Amino acid sequence: MTSGRLIDTVPGQSFLENAFVRWVLAPAVREAIAAHILPQHPVPVPEHTYRLDYLIVGARLRVAIELDGFTHHSDRQAFVYDRVRQNDLVARGYTVLRFSYGAIRDETAHCVGQLQAVLRKDPVLAAYVIVDPIVPVPDDMIANPLGLATPPPVAVPRTALGFYDIARQHLALRPLRECQREALGALADYYRRGEIDAACVMSVGAGKTTLGVAAALAFTRRRALIVTPGRVIRGTFAAALDHKRAGNTLYTLPGGPLIPGCRPPRALVLDSSGGPIQTVQAEELLDADMIVTNYHSLAGSDQGAGLLSKVSPEDIDFIVIDEAHIAAADSYRQLFARFPRARRLLMSACFSRADGKRITADVVYRYRYRLIDSIADGHAKQLNAHRFSPRVEETAYEIRWPNGRREQIVGKGALLEIMRDERKLARITATSEEPIRKIMRNVRACLSGQAKTLAPVRPRILFAALGQQHAEQISRIANEYGIACAPLHHSMSETEISATRTRFEAESGNLEAIVQLRMLGQGYDLPPITIVVPMRPYGSFGEFYQFIGRGIRIIQHPALADRTHEQRLDVVYHGELGLDTHLETLRAENDMDPHPAQDDEFGDAPATDATVTMTAATAPLTGSTPGSSAAIGTSAVVLWEQGDLHQQFLHDADRIEARRQERELDVFAQRYAAYAEKNPDPKPFAQFVAVIRSMHG
Predict the structure, then answer these.
(1) Of 184, 215, 291, 444, whose Cβ has the fewest other Cβ atoms within 10 Å?
(2) Cβ of 92: how many Cβ atoms within 10 Å?
(3) Cα distance between residue 496 and residue 431, in whole Å
(4) Where in this chain does the record put each Helicase ATP-binding domain (predicted)?
């Protein structure tokens, strides 16, 4: 950054003050005028002291810059105060210029002209005025379209307003990412037309949880319902809405609070297993502003009534469905039928559901984000792939049938073939542990390097296993290599699952790694995961990338603020598991939008973190649970293999920098198009770019 830019030398205490400097002052005058500008200048009057946003001092003129936001100057008391203040300033010899938020955003060139016309009246200040200035169109002063979709009640005292009417007045768009703001704008346009069935398709890591919370704040009238496919994603929303927890979406987004000056919504998180949804009373539901649950809780079960029976159709008017591609169609149809007038937002990273059907909603926003762009923007870690290459030509496996017959499986093609039947995978263990140990030595080295790079943040490892016994085997070997590790699977109790996750997720916890069985493969958000180890094949790119995506997000920590470019995600994998193609897809296509599962060769659709439903023909024995020995009639084992490891970054530093420069020119071209459209005699593109860089970097 150039130290002489006005945006660097003239400080602002608010977004509006910085916007004035960037879009009005910087185009109007040369940067040397900074010596004549006094921010927050005090002006004493009887019994009071005013503070000017900016005072520009010349030989003859004292120009007071007053900036009017879109919320603080609207009521009668503020109206009167502003006039009294301005008259006091004029009486003391100040020339007052007032610029509103809307004027700076929509009439930028006019504002620049007004400022220059006043400064030219002073011989000292006139010397700094730029002749024939280039005035770019502001690109970060976004009009707030949300109130148009859900207008506030007319002539209602503030004390009578509901939570959402008040929250909308405080809702800040600036902390959101560009794609989240764009999605909210698209939703506002859609709902404003009276439509209710919206879907947003956003790539892994784009921030769907934050979008869901922001959309609920923006478009709910009375009460919002957030429905997730299982406990992991439900927990992500619960954490996002827990205003007392670090990392919540309401107040601790990196860009600032989402609802500054407003109380948090009353959030009620429900669980289908063990009680709360069975025992919760209608009064508790109606006392909540947001209800978070999973689709298993909607219709109820033999043990008790579900959520749908406890609330009336008018009690819910906004519904968020996360991971809509895992749609439980019957449950969702019942949900929508129960609340027929409620606005709906379905969110997913895929265009189609896992059952092969299209998402039954109007896709109002699609966001495709190239992985290399996410890395260049500082949102994603650099990916470093470590491949274990067996020395033998093919890897041999064995399936043991219940009758004692053994069937040898040779090569990755045969292994991927049995991926069609998950029952054949649940009891896999490696007969030879040498491949696991070779991989584990590399994981241990990666962990040591990550610990040095990320200190004081504690890095974590996420393994993916084939079955429960395989997970326990990997965990045991990890501990032998000094990696504190534990398995996580559905045969564990809720208490065991919760305790294991806490030990893994908390900075004060004592687990460095978890071996999971399709529980934390999607929707799970723990940025300190910096090593992922897929020790199972994936038939679909979508499911593979969902797993890789758990560790791709940049860690936001004060100690790492100036070292984001050093953060990396180590992907340690087995060369005979058929994952090379998926990694090459990441390298070649760079899209973070996974392919629909049914388009892949094996249709290996993502599973929820809930128990997998089985048909009568494939159901386990009575009393057994998925993943247990009774559920599966076969077991496969790795017979023997050995090999070497090599590593490679998916995108090297030169390629990332080249892509960054390409995108920078595209952004300049977009700004130039807006500028040229409003100016009949625009300057050449190269000159425009030079001015923008000198003004804003």
Answers:
(1) 444
(2) 13
(3) 28
(4) 189-369
> Per-residue confidence at 308, pLDDT binned at 50, 70, 90?
confident
CA angle 451, 572, 599 (to 5 degrees): 130
Beta-strand relationship, 568-574 and 382-390: parallel
**Helix (H), strand (E), coil (C) string for 360-390:** CCEEEEEECCEHHHHHHCCCECEEEEEEEEE
Residue 86: in which H helix or E strand, if any?
A: helix 76-91
Provide the residue type at 184 as one letter: L
Q: What 3-state DSSP class applies to 587?
A: helix
- CA torsion sign for 168, 173, 176, 181 is positive
The parent domain of residue 171 ranges over 146-367
Whether 500 and 644 share a structural domain? yes
Q: How many residues does the chain have?
A: 697
Place of tokens 């490892």: 461
- Token pair 């019994």: residue: 47
How far is Cα 322 from Cα 201, in angstroms, rounded to an integer? Answer: 11
Please give the sequence-ordered ranges of beta strands (E in DSSP) within 470-526, or none if there are none: 485-488, 513-516
Judge if the upstream peptide bond of residue 254 is cis by omega within 30 degrees of 0. no
Backbone φ and ψ of 629, nearest 5°? -65, -30
Q: What does the pLDDT read at residue 309?
A: 80
Q: Give the type of residue at 638.
A: V
Return d(Cα 546, Cα 225) in angstroms, integer: 25
pLDDT in tens, 127-179: 999 999 999 888 666 656 666 577 666 555 656 688 998 898 888 888 898 88
Compute how many other C-beta atoms are within 10 angstroms of the C-beta atom of residue 680: 6
Q: CA of 656: how far to CAs of 145, 423, 444, 550, 651, in Å?
A: 35, 42, 28, 22, 6
Q: Give the number of domains in the chain.
A: 3
Euclidean distance between the first and the last CA atom of the chain, given in angstroms as a whole number: 6
CATH code at position 545: 3.40.50.300
Hey, which of 46-50, 322-326, 377-381, 404-408 has the most confident mean pLDDT?
46-50
